[in-house]
Amino acid sequence: MKQFRSVTSHPIGARSIPLVDWPAASSGAAIGSAVALVAGSLWAAAAFSSHNGTFYNNLAWWFGGTMIGVALLGAVTAGALSGARGATAGIVNGLSSWSLIALATGAVVAITAIAHGTTSTLSLPNGALNVDLVTPYVAFWSAVAGLGAAAMGGCAGGLIPRRRITNDAVELRLGTATGLETSTGSMNGARTPSRAAR
In which band, very low, low, confident or very high, does the pLDDT at 3 lie, cut at 50, 70 and 90? Predict the structure, then answer.
């Protein structure tokens, strides 16, 4: 009677993992954008509600510094979540996350500038003050610094070790049965008659 036994072998037909993992990059960008929204709201509240001169005199730089920080955070997240591992994959995914954050920020700044301008008026007890929300040089240098932070953060995220789970293929092979075997002619379990001794 034929029996089967299972034999584990190496994975069959392994597929290559793409270098850019867009779900990981978009996750990093979403997390970075959410943190930027919370931090930007805090800086605006400190400037316009608390009338803190440290914030309203340098509000554009506070926004710019926030964009550098969230570029680093989003890149680390994208590099860590990516299926492809290593420094190169981490840098590419980190820069992809930074590009999504930069495009979203540019769209928000453009819409705000068209609707309300790049400055806002702050009423103080001794008069009114125009507060710069964004300036060209701050936007440029924060974008350049964010690019470098994204490259470093993505590299760090790509080097974070992760435990791999491999699915070994199971292959069935014919095996030999051990012990007594019944003859193919005697299906009812009766023994095959042996030759009588002479």
Answer: low
